Amino acid sequence: MSQTSSTTPDPDRALGGRRNLDIEFVHVTKRFPGQQQPAVNDLSMRVEAGQICCLVGPSGGGKTTTMKLINRLVEFDDGDILIGGSSVCATDPIELRRGIGYVIQEVGLFAHMTVAENIAVVPRLLGWSKGRTKERISDLLDLVRLPQDMAKRYPAQLSGGQRQRIGLARALAVDPPVMLMDEPFGALDPITRASLQDEFLHLHHELRKTTVFVTHDIDEAIKMGDRIAVLRDGGTLAQYATADELLAQPADDFVADLVGADRGLKRLSLRRAGDLASDQPLAGAPSLPEVSADTTLRIALSVLLAASAPAVRVRAAHGPPGIITMEQLQAALGPALASGTPLGPAPASDVRTGTGPTADVPAGPAAGPGAKPRGN
Q1: pTM for the predicted model, two decimal places
Q2: DSSP label at residue 150
Q3: The CATH homologous superfamily of the domain defined by 11-99+176-262
């Protein structure tokens, strides 16, 4: 890989001055000394601008290494990585990192600094004025839903969820176009984790940062990712697809095992009840359990089964209520799962947040090198 000479970082040239940047891996390989197989092996894929790409796979699959290649915390040996069409090698690595948001599992806040001082680390390195920095800190505390008086506290005085919010605020401090997130919610309890996942998705809908998100949890990847890159041992790309495509048509047995035997139920989590509800009356129907139109089909199925009812009634925000029967769920899911095709037209809203357009991505799964077709 070609290297650039060290230069003094120039804030005016940082990535923070650019917007709508995609990330492209072009036959990237990374080998560590003493290892028999590469950590990342001939990786080629593209993360579209404004989308979240989740990297998932077993330990040793190269997830975190792949992410660290983007900001050159780890240098790759072959190939290239392009951000907005420009090679990461064309930018001084320090300047590159200052223009990319970075969030890690243990947060990494400086214990001797206040919340405000932690958020201000990169703005001060870039020479921001005190007034501009103070205003940005205030805006970011509002953005991550923390009170303004928290700015004077120290990390030890915060809960795990609060520290994670501050870590996110620090990563967003200079409004970077690219975010790298390494299992950011992995150390949190399930309730706090789910809450922060939802909050981040709402922030992402508003900010549209191009994000690479590392996780070991396939359910988190399905919830968070516009597209999911499944890496197998040796850093080989097994499949790169949307969550629906991944669940509908795993590229091979490795991917099928990773997504789990309950992949049909997981697919139901990708659709809303309002997308399937029929306005046809159910003849002779008793009192039915109700769900809202933005309830996932998986929850609707659970409610239906728990009530031993023939259907659920779907409350619509506007207009008459609809009905979903077990037969409709089976018709929507069963044939699609058997044929490996998506469930149908994408809903008008983002199922992860309940707002915003669904990402427009190419249809069909992409299998990486080494993938073997699944047996029947």
Answers
A1: 0.78
A2: G
A3: P-loop containing nucleotide triphosphate hydrolases (3.40.50.300)
